[in-house]
Amino acid sequence: MPTPCRPTILPLPPRLSACAIVLLSAYALLLPAPSQAADLAAPDVDTAGLAALSDPDTERNPYRGDARAIAIGREAFNQTCAVCHGADADAHRSPAPDLRRIGQSCRRVAEPALRLRCQTDADYYFRSTVEKGKIKLGIEHMPPWKGILSTELIWAIRSFVESAPRTSHP
Ligand code: HEC
User: How is the chain split into domains, by residue range?
Assistant: First the structure.
């Protein structure tokens, strides 16, 4: 009979309960070894087809729907992100979340200005998360990609992920 996960087992601060530690440790085991994560390298892709950014700080994906950016983004994704987020962004049985759902609900917003705002928020979240990585309670769930991936490449990856089909699994 497994011991139930009780937050009160250890005298820890409430936000760092025993339950959280057990869950975080189990989660960390699913990720690739830190040595793998430390060997971060830019993907070997030809980015010549990506248009120069008129505003490098833009919070909105400038390549949305651009077929060439999607193809470059797909290649880059499969080299750098697929190890955790699944080949072709299909997160099936992957240790990291399904990125295809980020901003998907914006499509249901009828009012054009609001839909644009919604997409821009999702774009900015995507870009800034990729740049900063995900570090929680000192555990690196995702490394920061700033300085490794150009902003152009991050937007190309975003364009690919958004266009990646949802696959159904048995
Ligand atoms: C070493 C594994 C790993 C690699 C490689 C990796 N990620 Fe992640 N990523 C994660 C994990 C794990 C999370 C979830 C972290 C959390 O929220 O605790 C995550 C979260 C994210 C999020 C936020 C998802 C959400 O639902 O909020 C984005 C965006 C993201 N990753 C993009 C990327 C992109 C783009 C790449 C490739 C350039 C990449 N990741 C490579 C492990 C990885």
Answer: 1-30, 49-163
Q: Which residues contact ligand 1 via a Cβ below 6 A?
A: 31-32, 37, 80-81, 83-85, 95-97, 99, 102, 126, 129-130, 134, 136, 141-142, 145, 149, 157
Place of tokens 């919604």: 118
Is the pTM value of this prediction over 0.85? no
> Containing H/E element for 73?
helix 67-80
- Averaged over successive runs of 10 residues, the pLDDT of the chain (170 residues) comes to 45 54 55 57 95 95 97 98 96 94 96 98 98 96 96 98 87
What CATH number should be reported for the domain whose range is 49-163? 1.10.760.10
Residue 53 Cα to chain centre, angstroms: 22
Output the CA 166–ligand 1 centroid distance in Å.
18
The answer to whether the CB of 28 falls within 8 A of the CB of 127 is: no
